[in-house]
Write a structure and sequence with these properties.
By secondary structure, the chain is of the alpha/beta class. The chain has a single domain, classed as P-loop containing nucleotide triphosphate hydrolases (Rossmann fold). 38% of the residues lie in helices and 22% in strands. The protein is globular, with a radius of gyration of 19 Å. The chain binds adenosine-5'-triphosphate (ATP) and magnesium ion (MG).
Amino acid sequence: MLELHRVSYRYAGYATAVLHDIELTIADGEIVGLVGPNEAGKSTLCLVASGLAPASIGGALSGSLSIDGELMAGRPPHELAERVAIGFQNPDTQLSGVTATVFEEVALGPMNLGLPVAETLARTREALATLGIEDIAERSPNRLSGGQGQLVALASLLAMHPRHVVLDEPTAQLDPEGTRLVGEALRALAATGTALLVTEHKTDLLDGLCQRIIVIDGGRIVLDGPAGDVLADERLPGWGVEPPSRIRLARAMAGRGLDLDLIAGTLR
Ligand SMILES: Nc1ncnc2c1ncn2[C@@H]1O[C@H](COP(=O)(O)OP(=O)(O)OP(=O)(O)O)[C@@H](O)[C@H]1O
Ligand SMILES: [Mg+2]
């Protein structure tokens, strides 16, 4: 379980806070979606939820981050990294820069956990297969497309079998097939009891994946509720969030006097 209680955060050297009074609990096995317009504070919230802010990047935090009921204030960055895995908005930031192949890159995490070689190899192969990137296992991590880099970064994270995961726009550079594979991988990870926070502009991905969605604007939570309710909220576009296609379609048809349920019933 990951909990933020009354969290406000200010970057080092800045006078004003960019997050205000954030209250968020993610239960084991739960996937919570995070949406909002540009500059709302989504990436900052990811940094705070992972503990990187302030432990690694400084700044001032009030309120608290707890993992499995333990307060994380004052813990060193390496201990936080063991508790919460984070996937950054830009995958280039994530790649280690010290490995020669994608396979080594994905194996690096399990190796650093001190796992036996057989377990490391098994986890690496499984993560590559889950995201459909076995074919680039021998490629250099420096010579990947943006989408491939994003999948490799996520595979590295999956291979660690993390219990808490924070992902900042994990499919931003992915095509529909890559996006679908990421969705399946996250669902499978949650089924093992992992708590996930996922920032994402693609509401079609969040629809059906998340139990809950929170909307932030201006560094504040403006809506928090069951995914179906939040995605159907009429105010969503006003917060810079496009509703999923099924809702847009239903509204467009209703606008022309067509009843989607009635049509679906006729087709059945
Ligand atoms: N390292 C930093 N130092 C100071 N201010 C920052 C830093 N990073 C972000 N900010 C500011 O914090 C606010 C929130 O930014 P953040 O990156 O969290 O937004 P976001 O919702 O992730 O936006 P986007 O959708 O563009 O990724 C913005 O006003 C931004 O300028
Ligand atoms: Mg961001």
